[in-house]
Write a structure and sequence with these properties.
By secondary structure, the protein is of the alpha/beta class. It folds into two domains: about 5-105 and about 300-315, NAD(P)-binding Rossmann-like Domain (Rossmann fold), CATH 3.40.50; about 105-290, 3-Layer(aba) Sandwich (Rossmann fold), CATH 3.40.50. It contains eleven helices and twelve strands. The strands form two sheets. The chain has a seven-stranded parallel sheet, with helices on both faces. A five-stranded parallel sheet has the order 2-1-3-4-5.
Length: about 325
């Protein structure tokens, strides 16, 4: 590449200013941006990516063969503002020798905090309580009114003790959790720090008072939490998912919650996203659904944006990326 050649970069959405400033200062970049908070329409994505050397995308952008073909042979780097990469056609990207940057680590703490908040809100029925205050349902003190489940003395099971799973476990321990079980592809030495016990999935599901899903979406975990899975859980147990919506069979979850097979569920991820407002899960009092806000703190999104921009620029110059996906 000649010293003066401008490299076309397409950004699929307005990203936080920390990252935009870095991109705007990069003299080698000819920036093209879908200037909106809403996802880029498919036709605009295909048009925008044509001839691009670099692409910045979000989880909501499906980067498949059609998009890669539309981009053409110039495309050298894709930088995603996310830790997840199931929206990317990884095999096809690898085949074409395109490098991928992503944002792990920086959103670990924010996601772990949100997971604990969602677990407590679900287990202690906070949204129901707020609703009762607002609608006049709060009349007098009653011994069992709005009773939920506490963490003290409980058994917590974490499915997937990666960075985020471990950060969740660290935060739950001080609540007086008696036993922490985890499952995954293999035992993790770092589990010692939280006295985690590696057990088969079946054992975890049967014994846990709280089941927290924190694994990545793979062919093995797709639809993992189904009728059989919920059937093994205790009737008093609470199910929490902050990983990916497709890990859960939502029809089976609805059945488990409405029949009293399990006590409650808290979800920060669904399939699809957004969840339609007429979805059966939203009719249930014992199901708390959040709009995928695991990493939604100002500082976290700012750092993610910075890292996304720096990953892209490093990829364009053939340098080492701060955070490259090993494929």
């Amino acid at each position: 590449m000649s010293a003066h050649q401008m490299l076309k970069v397409f950004v699929t959405r307005r990203i936080p200013q920390e990252g935009m400033k870095i991109l705007q200062k990069a003299s080698m970049c000819d920036l093209s941006l879908w200037d909106s908070d809403e996802p880029v329409p498919r036709a605009e994505l295909l048009k925008g990516v044509a001839g691009a050397h670099g692409l910045i995308c979000l989880l909501s952008d499906k980067i498949d063969t059609e998009v890669l073909d539309a981009a053409g042979p110039n495309l050298k780097v894709i930088s995603t503002l996310s830790v997840g990469f199931d929206h990317l056609a990884i095999d096809e990207i690898k085949k074409r020798g395109i490098r991928v940057g992503y944002t792990p680590d920086v959103l670990t703490d924010a996601t772990a905090e949100l997971t604990v908040a969602l677990l407590l809100a679900t287990a202690r029925r906070l949204p129901e309580g707020v609703e009762e205050v607002k609608n006049g349902g709060w009349s007098t003190w009653k011994p069992l009114w709005l009773c939920g489940y506490g963490l003290s003395g409980s058994t917590v099971g974490v499915i997937g003790l990666g960075r985020i799973g471990l950060a969740i476990a660290r935060r739950l321990k001080p609540f007086g959790v008696k036993k922490l079980l985890y499952t995954g592809r293999k035992p993790k030495p770092e589990a010692e720090e939280v006295d985690g016990e590696y057990v088969p999935l079946d054992t975890l599901v049967r014994e846990s008072d709280f089941v927290v899903v924190s694994c990545s979406l793979t062919p093995d975990t797709q639809g993992l939490c189904d009728k059989t899975f919920f059937g093994k859980m205790k009737k008093t147990s609470v199910f929490i998912n902050t990983s990916r919506g497709a890990v859960v069979n939502q029809e089976d979850l609805f059945e488990a919650l409405s029949s009293g097979q399990i006590a409650a569920a808290g979800l920060d991820v669904t399939s699809p996203e957004p969840l339609p407002t007429n979805h059966p899960l939203l009719t249930l009092k014992n199901c708390v659904v959040l709009p995928h806000i695991g990493s939604a703190t100002y500082s976290t999104r700012g750092v993610m944006s910075e890292l996304t921009a720096n990953n892209l620029l490093a990829g364009l110059t053939g340098s080492e990326m701060p955070s490259e996906l090993k494929m």
